[in-house]
């Protein structure tokens, strides 16, 4: 985290850089919490905290003062478990206080029946925080397109058994959509971009780190396939299946969730025919995949029934124009209606 986000005197900033001290770990004693020279020196004399990157990230999200934690790692290093233990104790205290407050509130309110209170998990709270930040930060534009999935279904049926014998995994339509998405992103780099932290530059990624939204009972995770542009269908399918399995089993490492450039969210298996997903920051776009439904369409002047799927893309209008979003969807549509082209 950049030190510039914290109020500090010039001398305090100089000393913190000289001693490699993260200002986010200090509590300022100056006016309005400004960090002063003495705060840095006191911290230096106390000893620089050692902390894992995942523990620090959780502490930042939950607003935890790391100086109050005694690390159980090597040489007193603060680990993820130390932060979670503090949160657990904090939650238990809050629950007891809430129970007392609720008893008083219920006695003063009308009662229409029983109310069950379910505490938000740490994962759910993190998702809520990130989605709120994304929704209120980026002005968005949403575009939709319908795709004839006839050829995708044919391709899947023709190679599903072979891939299952080779890998042990069952090829899904989502796997094919993911590969087509990667191919489309390479052709449209502005969809695969992000905004610099200072908001003055657009970062065009020459690679695709594809995140796949995985819904769990207590929250949402977005594991990331790194350098997906270098993979064929078989390799991408295996990577997606392995990450999804780790997500369900809660075995993902912090690096499995980092550095995505684009996200795919699929609600088609729940029968959803259209939705506008919220961007997974710092990405500039996210693709929503809906259910495939048999519909009557006109083909060569005749009405026929075809499996039709709707795709929705939400883009950050600060860096992506509607025309670019439309071009990307048309490229993706062409790939899915001619899926052999993505295998070449």
What does the model show?
This protein is an alpha+beta fold and 344 residues long. The chain folds into 2 domains: 3-83, E3-binding domain (Dihydrolipoamide Transferase, Irregular); 125-342, Chloramphenicol acetyltransferase-like domain (Chloramphenicol Acetyltransferase), CATH 3.30.559. The chain is built from 9 helices and 10 strands. It has helices spanning 10-18, 37-46, 53-62, 80-108, 122-137, 150-167, 173-187, 233-248, 322-337; strands at 140-148, 193-195, 202-204, 210-212, 214-216, 219-221, 224-225, 262-266, 285-299, 302-316. The strands form 3 sheets. The chain has a 6-stranded mixed beta sheet with strand order 1-10-9-8-4-7. Strands 2-3 form a two-stranded antiparallel sheet. A two-stranded antiparallel sheet has the order 5-6. α3 (53-62) packs parallel to α4 and α7 packs across α8 (233-248). The radius of gyration is 25 Å and the shape is elongated. The model has no long low-confidence stretch (mean pLDDT 84).
Structural topology:
Layout: H1 10-18, H2 37-46, H3 53-62, H4 80-108, H5 122-137, E1 140-148, H6 150-167, H7 173-187, E2 193-195, E3 202-204, E4 210-212, E5 214-216, E6 219-221, E7 224-225, H8 233-248, E8 262-266, E9 285-299, E10 302-316, H9 322-337
Parallel strand pairs: 4-8, 8-9
Antiparallel strand pairs: 1-10, 2-3, 4-7, 5-6, 9-10
Helix pairs in contact: 1-2, 3-4, 7-8, 7-9
Question: What is this structure, in a nutshell?
Answer:
Helix content is 40%, strand content 18%. It is an alpha+beta fold and 344 residues long. The protein has 2 domains: 3-83, Dihydrolipoamide Transferase; 125-342, Chloramphenicol acetyltransferase-like domain (Chloramphenicol Acetyltransferase), CATH 3.30.559.10.
């Amino acid at each position: 985290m950049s030190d510039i986000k914290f109020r500090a005197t010039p001398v305090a900033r100089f000393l913190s850089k000289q001693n490699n001290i993260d200002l986010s770990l200090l509590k300022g004693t100056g006016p309005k919490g400004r960090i002063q020279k003495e705060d840095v020196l006191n911290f230096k004399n106390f000893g620089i905290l050692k902390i894992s990157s995942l523990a620090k990230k959780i502490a930042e999200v939950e607003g935890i003062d790391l100086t109050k934690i005694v690390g159980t790692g090597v040489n007193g290093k603060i680990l993820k478990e130390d932060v979670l233990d503090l949160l657990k104790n904090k939650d238990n205290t809050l629950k007891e206080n809430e129970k007392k407050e609720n008893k008083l509130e219920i006695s003063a309110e009308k009662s229409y029946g029983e109310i069950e209170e379910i505490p938000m998990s740490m994962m759910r709270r993190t998702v809520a925080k990130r989605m709120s930040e994304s929704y209120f930060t980026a002005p968005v534009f949403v575009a939709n397109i319908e795709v004839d999935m006839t050829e995708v279904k044919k391709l899947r049926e023709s190679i599903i058994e072979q891939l299952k014998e080779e890998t042990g995994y069952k090829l899904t339509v989502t796997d094919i959509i993911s590969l087509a998405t990667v191919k489309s992103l390479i052709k449209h780099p502005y969809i695969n971009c992000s905004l610099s932290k200072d908001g003055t530059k657009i970062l065009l990624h020459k690679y695709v780190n594809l995140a796949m939204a995985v819904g769990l009972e207590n929250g949402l995770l977005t594991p990331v396939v790194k350098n997906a542009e270098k993979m064929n269908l078989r390799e991408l399918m295996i990577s997606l299946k392995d990450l999804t399995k780790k997500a369900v089993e809660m075995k993902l490492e912090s690096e499995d969730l980092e550095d995505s450039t684009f996200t795919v969210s699929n609600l088609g298996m729940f029968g959803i025919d259209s939705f506008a997903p919220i961007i997974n920051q710092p990405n500039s776009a996210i693709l929503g995949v809906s259910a495939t439904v048999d519909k009557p369409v006109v083909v060569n002047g005749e009405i026929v029934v075809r499996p039709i799927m709707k795709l929705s893309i939400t883009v950050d209008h600060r860096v992506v124009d509607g025309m670019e979003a439309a071009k990307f969807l048309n490229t993706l549509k062409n790939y899915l209606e001619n899926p052999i082209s993505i295998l070449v």
